[in-house]
Design brief:
globular, 2 helices, alpha+beta, about 140 residues
Length: about 140
Amino acid sequence: MSAEAPASPARRASIYVAGFSHKNPIPAGCRIGPLLMSGSIQGNDPATGKPAQTIEAQCEYMLANVRRIVEAAGGTTGDIVKLTVWMQDRNQRPALNKPWLEMFPDPESRPARHTMQADLDMGKLIECDFTAYIA
């Protein structure tokens, strides 16, 4: 069996966004053709790089980071197919629903979303990743 050859740089594009980074050497997202997948997106304040103090602020920053990443890849929030969300406390979903409904106001055109409870670290109360299809 032969190993699959790595994707060529022209085929795969790493997406970076000013004010958003990971501790490890990984991009905010990766695009191959119309498919965009993000890495972990936190509710960090882009000015400080640290998690916001409240769940409401973390939700706002997290979804703002989602928007910035999909736009940096050449898409819009209308191209997002699914978000997977991890929360320290799923009972705090109303804090997520408010900015979610602002970002996706049309009930006929919202991405799928799966929210799970998780033991998050470093002051994070919420984080997500997403998949988008940018035609």
